[in-house]
Amino acid sequence: MHLKRFTRGAVRDKRVLVRVDFNVPLANGEVTDDTRIRESLPTLIRLLDYGACPVLVSHLGRPGGKVDPRLTLAPVSGCLEQLLKKVEADLTRVEFVPDCIGEKVQEALRKWIPGEVILLENTRFYAEEEANDESFAREMAAPFDAFVSDAFGMAHRAHASNVGVTRFLPSYAGLLIEREVSALSRLLHSPERPFCVVLGGKKVSDKLPLLLGLRGRADLVLVGGAMMFTLARAAGFSVGKSLVEERLVEKCRELIEIYRRSSSALVMPTDVVVADDAASPTVVRNVRLSEIGAEDIGVDIGEEARWLFSEHIASAHTIFWNGPMGIFELKPFHLGTMAVAEAIAANNRAFSVVGGGESVQALAQLRLSERVSHVSTGGGASLAMVAGNDLPGLNALQVEAD
Question: Does the active-site annotation cover 111?
Fold first, then answer.
């Protein structure tokens, strides 16, 4: 995939609309995790250095197309200003505009001075945003000369602020999207063998397209998390009171058969950790997958599975991980996720990519992020790209073939 890059000539003295992903956690009006904001800095600094007027637009949470004061991007502007001033001496300030279209945006642009960054209000305060409404996109794009997309986490969505505006403006990829596409393309097109994929999380429905897309491409697909119990049920195991997506059992049965006929191995844990209650357990046991009791709830991969998964990861030359192996935020159900994170970090000869909020969070908690080749900012987007699916948010950013 070849993306259009913005040049100095394309953005100098231009009003540039920049789609970022500032969907960050807030508590008491303050940003509690600024990772996504920091990831946007290289593109913003490049635009400022090139003499552009960067105007940032993002969503935050799910306000449902209505104004929700709890989901305003106002607190983000202060955090962004602090981060930018640490690395960009010429920055004057970050100006927050309490709307993303209309006269307030026009007024902020008229008052803009070089070195200033403008941040617009939450796009999802308008229902037209998620509907990719053409009139809304046209109005959003109207005051600008160019568009830069740097919200990889939105690449699998077709919304007005990341897809709709590209109909009306010359459009380019930001530096974050370039990094993401470069790393994930290695998994998609030229993975060094063995290629090991580790998938976890709550729902198998979130991973089915990827599981289908990986058959014949990945050498090993290791499955953990609550999603493994739907697959285990499909394979004929009793899983007690573990989470099962009943409507997908038959599809998972078909998936298992597809893998049996392919060159890829679908590997489920040999043993699991079960409890009598996930939130407040009084009994926790390690049992074989075939020995889950009628009252048991599966909460993590087991001791033998941790060792087995770690061995597979250690021998891999390419690794992709998305999703925790258990309820990792609750001890002692974090051990499977820790084992996977530590095994990936220890394999320093492999090209490794980790995506998905909880997997990335686990890496950060263990201070292992720097020992992974690439930490992706896109959960669903990274899954879609590795599966080989179309990403509407990237289509308009590609260089057209001759």
Answer: no
* 215 among known catalytic residues: no
> Has residue 14 been placed in a domain?
yes
Whole-prediction pTM: 0.90
Q: In the chain, what percentage of residues exceed pLDDT 70?
A: 99
pLDDT, tens only, 271-317: 999 999 988 899 999 999 999 999 999 999 999 999 999 999 999 99
The CATH number of the domain where 327 resides is what?
3.40.50.1260
- Which entry of 36, 124, 233, 306 is annotated as an active-site residue? 36
Task: Name the residue range of residue 373's domain.
Answer: 183-386
Same domain, 147 and 47: yes
Please report which confidence band the pLDDT of residue 85 belongs to, taking 50, 70 and 90 as the band edges. confident
Domain count, the chain: 2
Of 398, 359, 396, give the one whose Cα is nearest residue 377. 359
> Are 28 and 168 part of one and the same domain?
yes
Task: Check if 357 is active-site.
Answer: yes
Say yes or no: 150 and 211 in one domain: no
Catalytic residue at 380?
yes
Catalytic residue among 203, 215, 253, 371: 203
Q: Out of 61, 293, 357, 388, which one is annotated catalytic?
A: 357
The burial of 30, by beta-carbon neighbours within 10 Å (0-12 exposed, 13-18 middle, 19 or more buried), is given as: exposed
Tell me the mean pLDDT in the region 353-373: 91
pLDDT given for residue 87 in this prediction: 83
